[in-house]
Amino acid sequence: MLQNKTFLITGIADNRSLAMYVAKEIIKQGGKVVCTGLGVSAFHSNLSDRAKAFLNTNFEDFKASIKTELGDTTRVDILDVTLEENMEDLARNYEKDGIRLHGFLHAIAMDKTIRKKEVKPLLEVTRDEFCDTMDVSAYSLIRIAHYLLKYNVLQPGSSICSISYIAASKVTFHPYRNMSIAKAALERISVELADELGRKNGTRVNAIRFSTYMGSKAGTATLNQSDVDISDRMSPLGNAHPQDLATEVVHLFRPDVRITGEIRHVDGGYHITG
Predict the structure, then answer these.
(1) Is 1 a domain residue?
(2) 24-27 contact pairs (CB < 8 A, 24+)
(3) DSSP bridge partners of 35
(4) Of 20, 60, 116, 242, which residue is 20 to 30 A from 9 by alpha carbon distance?
(5) Do 12 and 78 meet the contact criterion of CB atoms below 8 Å apart?
(6) What is the pLDDT of residue 79?
(7) What are the pLDDT digits (tens) for 70-111?
């Protein structure tokens, strides 16, 4: 299905990250992946020792997960989407090394208003907190695509997918305030890029709303088991599994699928329950 196709996978934090399931399914279907993780890049400056230690540990954990799950030969690179120079350097290096991408998965999100599984009221969110979340969780989709196209790394007819959540359009039982706004922006960006890039070179852009998921680092940081149990009961088919997401992304990555501008639901039907 994906023979001779290569895809960029962002957002892998550990072996239970949703993006990891996608990467494994791509390889299973005959494709190749290159992966990015957060670490200390050449473009970071004025970092405290604590920040450097955190980023170094994060990148080492990321590399270890890639090695265990995807093998020694899988390429890994540092990517911090808050740094324009880092994004451009990544695309430039891909061009130099002859990497040609046929799509990428956007699975990056960040929200500093969530601490110890408690969400700050929206009225208390600062401008910096709001803009930081929007920058990392939504705007980065535009900039990654921009640089990959600028250096002719992302090929015509490619497919871009991003991971979203039902909170982009509804207030949920889990108060997902600041991030929900960024997810709504991510979905709108996906629709606009679908039109713009489809007309430009046939590139497809879609977003997928996935079930409440606690298996990853991000899920563990924001959810309680009761949140997962509630959505599981409300969903006609129960919560979707990570493999369900991986299967859908690979379907959208297929070169012969004329689907774009979609906000897909892989959530066991949770979105129909009100």
Answers:
(1) no
(2) 24/69, 24/70, 24/246, 25/243, 25/246, 25/247, 25/249, 25/250, 26/2, 26/250, 26/253, 27/70
(3) 9, 76
(4) 116
(5) no
(6) 97
(7) 999 999 999 999 999 999 999 999 999 999 999 999 999 999
Question: Letter for the amino acid at 96?
Answer: K
Please provide residue 59's backbone torsions phi and psi, each rounded to the nearest 5 degrees: -70, -35
Q: Is residue 118 part of a domain?
A: yes
Q: Which domain holds residue 197?
A: 6-272
Domains: count for the chain: 1
Residue 4 tokens, joined: 């001779």
Beta carbons within 10 angstroms of residue 130's beta carbon: 17
Note whether residue 217 is domain-resident: yes
Compute the distance between CA of residue 243 and CA of residue 254 in angstroms, rounded to an integer: 17
State the pLDDT at residue 249: 98
* Partners of residue 9 on adjacent β-strands: 35, 105
Q: How many CB atoms lie within 10 A of CB 256?
A: 6
Tell me, what CATH number does 166's domain have? Answer: 3.40.50.720
Whole-structure pTM value? 0.95
The residue among 99, 8, 22, 12 whose CA lies nearest residue 63 is: 12
Please choose, from the candidates 95, 94, 91, 103, the residue with its C-alpha nearest in 3D space to the C-alpha of residue 157: 103
